[in-house]
Amino acid sequence: MANKHPYLTTHEGKLYLTDQEKGLRTSLEIKEVLYEERSPYQHIMIVDTVLFGRALILDGIVQTTEKEGFIYNEMISHMPLAFHPKAEDVLIVGGGDLGVAREVLKYPFVRRVDMVEIDARVVEASRTYLPEVAAPPDDRLHIYFEDGALFVGRKEAAYDVIIVDAADPVGPATVLFEHPFYAALERALRADGVMAAQSDSPIHHIDVCKRTHSSLKSLFPIVYPYFSTVPAYPSGWWMFTLASKRYDMLRPLDPGISTRFVNDAILRGSLAVPNMFAQALFSV
Amino acid sequence: MANKHPYLTTHEGKLYLTDQEKGLRTSLEIKEVLYEERSPYQHIMIVDTVLFGRALILDGIVQTTEKEGFIYNEMISHMPLAFHPKAEDVLIVGGGDLGVAREVLKYPFVRRVDMVEIDARVVEASRTYLPEVAAPPDDRLHIYFEDGALFVGRKEAAYDVIIVDAADPVGPATVLFEHPFYAALERALRADGVMAAQSDSPIHHIDVCKRTHSSLKSLFPIVYPYFSTVPAYPSGWWMFTLASKRYDMLRPLDPGISTRFVNDAILRGSLAVPNMFAQALFSV
């Protein structure tokens, strides 16, 4: 039985969103499609899933969910913020669901957060349908609706921390995984700046992980790959990369920062690299 | 299009093995069924998967795979062996694919490994079709083909380390997740013994995780839940539980022990408990 939603399939009378990677099909059961539109940039859906609650879907790919999206958002945010002793100016590239902004704004010493997101409709939809994920209103948050690579290209020594919360390296986000963009990030950071980027699945795309790692190694003296489980993403395992100009050690997580996933031991433990990935990432 | 294999489905001309949990269908593409039989205990298949190479399937559920099964086997074995300073007598309950035996036998100070597995046909099939997983022949390994709970019930202060590599808590393995069995394990361990058990998926079965944790807490002074990604299992995230009578600290992993996943930092990092699970496991 067909349904009227692109990207969704019907199986035994139930709606599913399916991610097909090499040899693995992962299908999330959908209770209801709450919102759907084709923006100038992509196809946007907000659905209610059986397992993870509400989810933001872009071009058929899960971006974040109500019930576990905080794992990804906390891992990509608190790691760089624990490396920098006191980040005041933070840039988020992408991050349209406002989940990363929510984490960054928890720090009272952060005085300004710039966020550059290409698609205003994603922010709008997230604010309306994903209040559990999206940051509440905050005067420190400034959102620019434009191309992230162009925005970063105009900045020099402007930020203490930059977080790249990009969609997958297919379509418009492809440039956000390439060397010229990382070089621009390096220039946009201050002399003691720290950055973190999502680096795709080490199970399905170890090539992307490896390219990101070597690209950042050629630009920054201190680079750490780190890993976390993110249940709603294909294979459930995700890599991030941290790059730092000066700081090489995690501060303890600030007391009073409230989290559902990360704590000091999780942040430290996530810097441990399984042998199999060390071999793939560090071998020349 | 139907196919002749129970538990497998055909989709667009390709064979899949599907795991259906609440709201999530995970389907592994199968290249070929290499072996299939119905033993007195269960349905056994060895298949060749596109993503993870060869896999052992019992009653339609993935038990181990050639390309990532070592993650599970290393996590369940090296953690208890790093807690005990010098385990000489080790018991494996279940473990029919001989993957845990392979890890345990890497330690030269281990002088005897008893393994109690209900189904001789699983061991036979693994030896034939999964040489990458199954332990090579070793005089120290003694396999008993009988009911694990009955075997353990006859033992007293006989082992330094016990590893429970049970199938899911449905069907014959159900008793291996219940309090009387854990109490029997406690009696079968020496006064300084350490045990580890797989404790199911914290995403799909946090109730099983929590029950295991409280059951072992009532029997042992030292209990640690720990977590790892296991890509071929549903949700990709798995919990294990370590229980120890005396030792509270990991020795460094022995030099010369060759691993593909674990190292000291991974073992230590895996003892970090995400806030969300700490709340579920430790709250009364």
From TrEMBL, chains A, B:
Q: Name one GO biological process term.
A: spermidine biosynthetic process
Q: Where does S-methyl-5'-thioadenosine bind?
A: Q42, E117, D147, G148, P172
Provide the protein name: Polyamine aminopropyltransferase
Pfam families attached to this UniProt entry: Spermine_synt_N, Spermine_synth
| Lineage, highest ranks first | Bacteria, Bacillati, Bacillota, Bacilli, Bacillales
Q: Which domain of life is it from?
A: Bacteria
What function is annotated for this protein?
Catalyzes the irreversible transfer of a propylamine group from the amino donor S-adenosylmethioninamine (decarboxy-AdoMet) to putrescine (1,4-diaminobutane) to yield spermidine.
Cite the annotated pathway.
Answer: Amine and polyamine biosynthesis; spermidine biosynthesis; spermidine from putrescine: step 1/1
* CDD domains, per the entry: AdoMet_MTases
Reaction(s) catalysed by this chain, per the record, are: S-adenosyl 3-(methylsulfanyl)propylamine + putrescine = S-methyl-5'-thioadenosine + spermidine + H(+)
Organism equals Candidatus Carbonibacillus altaicus
Q: Which positions are catalytic residues?
A: D165 (proton acceptor)
Q: Which UniProt keywords apply?
A: Polyamine biosynthesis, Spermidine biosynthesis, Transferase
